[in-house]
Amino acid sequence: MTTGRFITVEGIDGAGKSSHLAYLAQAMRARGAEVVVTREPGGTPLGERLRELVLHEAMETVTEALVMFAARREHVVRVIEPALARGAWVLSDRFSDATFAYQCGGRGQDRRAFAALESVVHPGRQPDATFLFDLDPAVAASRQRAQQRTPDRFEREDEAYFRRVREAYLERARADPGRFRVIDASGSLEDVRGRLAAAFEAFAA
Ligand code: TYD
Fold first, then answer.
1. Is the Cβ atom of 40 under 6 angstroms away from ligand 1?
2. Domain holding 125: CATH number?
3. Residue 158 domain boundaries
4. Per the confidence metrics, is the pTM higher than 0.85?
5. Which residues are within 8 A (CB) of 125 and not within 5 positions of it... i.e. 6 or more apart?
6. Is 72 a residue whose pLDDT tops 60?
7. Whose CA is nearest to atom 22 of ligand 1?
8. Is it true that the peptide bond before 41 is cis, omega within 30 degrees of 0?
């Protein structure tokens, strides 16, 4: 039986979701819950090895999507489901919405085929809430440049790619308004934090 809650955060690279993860984890702990913070691709020893490959090794696009789902299967079975079963809150930095946004939206992979695979990888499981940090890709790119770290394979994609990724995220949010909380990620860190806090409190109330 599931008693915990499964929360995911999503958004294009540079939208700022990583900056807000610690805040969300702390807000959950303040409610007295055990909180498991995890990420995709990754979250398990095998998943982290797959992450290294998929972020840095050139591969064909269907292969790329399959690696995302392979890492996700390990994550679901070994981390997410056991944590939810013992009543923990699971906070994951990305989940399947990222595959539909980056591989289907960004790279044109077939959504229906991957929806079928999704039902094999995490049958009957979707996040209870997904906080989507939404930002204009041009602004996200300038934030990325300011960070000056070495970009991975996805971060090197052009603005047109991130426009497609953003649109695919927003399309998923429109299709499932009960699950998605779209956070306007423009403005200062404090502005975004305020919007996130309001959305989280509304969800957790
Ligand atoms: P990200 O959370 O951006 O890691 P970091 O903040 O450390 O750079 O995730 C890594 C990348 O993986 C990101 O560019 C999006 C990509 N990704 C996909 O393309 N498909 C997926 O299914 C997932 C989970 C991530």
1. yes
2. 3.40.50.300
3. 5-204
4. yes
5. 6, 76, 80, 81
6. yes
7. 99
8. yes
